[in-house]
Specification:
2 domains, Glutaredoxin, three-stranded antiparallel β-sheet, binds glutathione, mainly alpha, single chain, 3 strands, Glutathione S-transferase Yfyf (Class Pi), Chain A, domain 2, 9 helices
Length: 211
């Protein structure tokens, strides 16, 4: 299997964690913006974005589609709960991450280099992140993972995003710490101890220049 990815991308981190949790071997070919615009890559993902998974002759993009594909194709160990309600709840966390929290983190990330950080108009974006984290905090009571003892696809996207919540909120002068998100911090202590999460976090931090 090959995974086209950027090591600092939370969308890619989610897929790598799913692959590692399932014990699937994969290579990560070098990716740059020229590759993403190449006809060969666009044939795999017409959006020209990573992650893209190649499994034999089959290639597919979009992180959530990829992890759902992995779950169906390689069901052991399961990364979705056994009940219909549990799977719906897991997908709620995935959607909340991908449609709301993740994009807001991206907004704060890119603002650090495009001149918007620190401007009065940008303060509303930092407030939006704080509100989304408060909403998430109110939705969880980790034991130790979002849906209980099983580490699921509900948890996977938040591993790298937790790191971004801490670092980006601090970089924008409104640090979110464990005191303000104790449940999320408790969850992160358990999630980041998993070998899959630890490996992906280490790779991301190295790529981001933080060690
Ligand atoms: N909804 C997509 C988002 C993919 C995405 O935005 N990928 C970014 C990296 S995080 C990318 O490839 N950016 C490169 C570009 O747009 O040129 C997913 O979940 O896979």
């Amino acid at each position: 299997m090959r995974l086209f990815q950027y090591p600092f991308s939370h969308n890619c981190a989610k897929v790598k964690i799913a692959l590692l949790e399932k014990g699937l071997a994969f290579e990560t070919p070098p990716v740059d913006s020229a590759l993403l615009r190449s006809p060969e890559f666009l044939a795999r993902n017409p959006l020209g974005k990573v992650p893209v998974l190649e499994d034999g002759d089959f290639a597919i993009g979009e992180s959530e589609v990829i992890v759902e594909y992995l779950e169906e194709r390689y069901p052991q160990p399961p990364l979705l709960p056994p009940t219909i309600e549990g799977r719906a709840r897991s997908r709620w966390f995935s959607r909340f991450h991908d449609l709301y929290l993740g994009p807001q983190l991206s907004t704060l990330f890119f603002a650090l280099s495009d001149g918007r950080a620190g401007t009065p108009a940008f303060a509303v974006e930092v407030d939006r992140l704080v509100a989304l984290v408060a909403l998430l905090e109110a939705q969880i009571d980790p034991n130790p993972f979002f849906l209980g003892a099983q580490f699921t696809l509900a948890d996977a996207p938040y591993v790298l995003s937790y790191h971004f919540i801490e670092t980006l909120s601090a970089a924008h002068g409104r640090p979110l710490t464990a005191a303000e998100m104790p449940r999320l911090a408790r969850w992160f202590a358990a999630a980041s101890a998993r070998p899959s999460a630890a490996a992906v976090l280490a790779e991301a931090k190295a790529a981001l220049g933080g060690g």
